Amino acid sequence: MIDPWFTYKSWAEISKSALINNLNVIREHAAATGTLVAPVVKANAYGHDAVLVVPILEEAGVTHLCVATIDEAITLREAGATSDILIFGTTRYEHVPFLKRYRLTASIVFADEIQEFAAESINAGGPPLPVHIKLDTGMSRFGFLVDSVYRAKTIEAMLAAAREPSLSVTGVYTHLATADCEPAYVAMQRERFISTVSEAESYGFPRVKRHIASSAAIPGQPDNHFDMVRPGIALYGGKAGPREPHWTKLRPVMTVKSIIEQINDVSAGTRVSYGGTWTLSRDSRLAVVNMGYADGLSRLLSSKGHFYHKGREIPIVGRICMDRCIVDVTEIPDICVRDEVMLFGEDAYVRKDASDIASICGTIDYEIFTGIKERVSRVLVE
């Protein structure tokens, strides 16, 4: 890995201690029910670099992981991951040989996949292909519908999958649509899930691993735990519903930093950056920060966002450029070229959550994390 100090560009520090801390906080919430914790490391571990993150999790005792695509799963296997890996998204039946070669678990989300996966599993040889069945209890995205119109057909499909000798149904799950905002709808989805699975079991469907809970559905909600919980954003210290009272111990895992490249004294009345949208109202000191929208610094932060220098806020002025932005350091007399500045995360001086930046941009911290581009080096720190 290139040391960012040699390139004087932006980088993201990934804190091992914060990651372990957050995993332990989640485990505390799951301990009462003895539920398995299966971290979600899709989207390159929410932008944190899954190849860095997964070994730390496995060293801490994690045995199950969740990803979105077969590509993500294979990348982890080739990097040495030993955990069971569940693929949330659809996987083409033609890829069954790769599922078997890399010991991966696919999701079945509609009826035609049962026969397609079963036939391809026979052709590929070897042991039965492990699969989880995805139920759509109210998200309207992936899975077998379970409302009163479709439940009987869904149960038939579940039983058909369980009867296939070339498939091994090892789990059944759903995704909660409103875990962070609407408990009544969560309760409805949970009831649909329970009643569908229970009825299927009464007809001979095997007792398999059941799971419905993402981060926001874990704390203080043991009814959502079942056999496994799937923490994602909470693992990285992000916003998983209200921080009080359950998530106060979470720490930011990612801290994004950059470098001051240049500092100039600029006269009042001078316009700043592309389009001249910001005009200086006073004589000012302006600094160039080596981070722009090609690094993941949203243009929505133009003249709205801030960096931090030793805990002190320095505002972004003018439009953010592709590779750089301009900040007003008039009130920071001791700042120097090559000094570090922090966009979000936690350093020795201040903590700034990605959710704060997300609020300015009208989005969520998931998008902020995953939007930090590849050319921003991920550097593992203790």
What's this model, at a glance?
With about 375 residues, this protein is of the alpha/beta class. About 30% of the residues lie in helices and about 25% in strands.
Mean model confidence by pLDDT: 96
Remind me, CATH topology of the largest domain?
A: TIM Barrel
Count up the helices. 11
What overall geometry do the principal axes of the alpha carbons give?
elongated
Poorly predicted ranges (pLDDT <50, ≥5 residues)?
A: none
CATH architecture of the largest domain: Alpha-Beta Barrel
Q: How would you describe what is shown here?
A:
The chain has 382 residues and is an alpha/beta fold. It folds into 2 domains: 16-236, Alanine racemase (TIM Barrel, Alpha-Beta Barrel), CATH 3.20.20.10; 254-352, Lyase, Ornithine Decarboxylase, Chain A, domain 1. Helix content is 29%, strand content 24%. It contains 11 helices and 20 strands. Strands 2, 3, 4, 5, 6, 7, 8, 9 and 10 form a 9-stranded parallel beta sheet that branches. Strand 18 (340-346) and strand 19 form a beta hairpin. Helix 8 (151-163) packs across helix 9 (183-202). The radius of gyration is 24 Å and the shape is elongated. The model has no long low-confidence stretch (mean pLDDT 96).
